[in-house]
Amino acid sequence: MSTARRKPPRVGDNPLFRRLLIGIVLLLGALLILAPLIVIGVEAFRQGWKVYVATLANADTQHAIMLTVITALIAVPLNTVFGVAAAWAMTKFDFRGKRLLLIVTEIPFSVSPIVAGVAYLFVYGLQGIFGPLLDAYDVKILFALPGIVLASMFVTAPFVARELIPLMQAQGRDLEEAATSLGASGWRTFFSVTLPNVKWAMLYGVVLCNARVMGEFGAVSIVSGNIRGQTNTLPLHIELLYHDYQAAGAFASASILAVIAVFTIIAKVALEGRGAGRRVKPVAILATPEIRP
């Protein structure tokens, strides 16, 4: 008489453990994520719509919003171009230093934004490497829009590349090589073959990059000088309002970033539905033979 082999129990087979784990995750998610968003919404409208609208109509708040939008309009397209170019170079071509290029692309994720801001001070500040030369020609980088854009570009540089590299590597080079063999130029191959196959992943990276640019605080706070009505982005303006005990204005301004975050999540989910954002992260590429220098 044969006895059937019993399968070893799995962690998920225990209903009590499963429910307990799900409950803990939901509780932590509610406390750490939902509760702050609810508080922002409640406090922003505590004094009514008129106060909320009047707060957002303040000249300093309007300038902070405009400066944040302008920064995003400059930094996001430039980082998109950089990300696409970096991903295209690392996945479609063989050259010495490919591994080094990938490591350089990942550096902003390893460096604190505050450290990045301080580094820009030592490069473009009056006592920095290029500071005296810039001052001689009256070119202002720090405590102005260029410095804010540079700091924002630094912290968001890897977002688009991280989404494109794994996908473009998985797709291989066959289509591009076929187009080239048929006489297509490099640009024609990119716009007709490569770009249509990665457009959703690229948009996924653009959405994440834009959200980070608009919410960046650390690096921008160092290079902007935090001048009210001049070099304050929206996150910096929120901090100033809070320190001035203007809670209504701080929460009203914070509600704008909260709305941007919600729309970012919606766009992220929509793009994931089209297959974007569901790939192995490019850190794993370091171990694959195709990215060897």
Task: Give a brief outline of the structure.
The protein has 13 helices and no strands.
Layout of secondary structure:
Layout: H1 15-44, H2 49-56, H3 59-92, H4 98-110, H5 113-124, H6 131-136, H7 145-156, H8 158-171, H9 174-181, H10 186-215, H11 218-224, H12 234-243, H13 247-273
Helix pairs in contact: 1-13, 2-13, 3-7, 3-8, 3-10, 3-12, 5-7, 5-11, 7-10, 7-11, 8-10, 9-10, 10-13, 12-13
Structural commentary:
- The chain is mainly alpha-helical.
- It has 2 domains: 32 residues; 244 residues, MetI-like (MetI-like fold, Orthogonal Bundle), CATH 1.10.3720.
- Helix content is 72%, strand content 0%.
- The protein is built from 13 helices and no strands.
- Helix 10 runs antiparallel to helix 13.
- The longest helix has 34 residues.
Query: In percent, how helical is the residue content?
Result: over 70%
The total tally of domains equals 2
The CATH architecture designation of the largest domain is Orthogonal Bundle
The residue-averaged pLDDT reads: 84
Number of helices: 13
CA distance, first residue to last residue: 61 Å
Keyword list:
single chain; 293 residues; mainly alpha; MetI-like fold; 2 domains; 13 helices
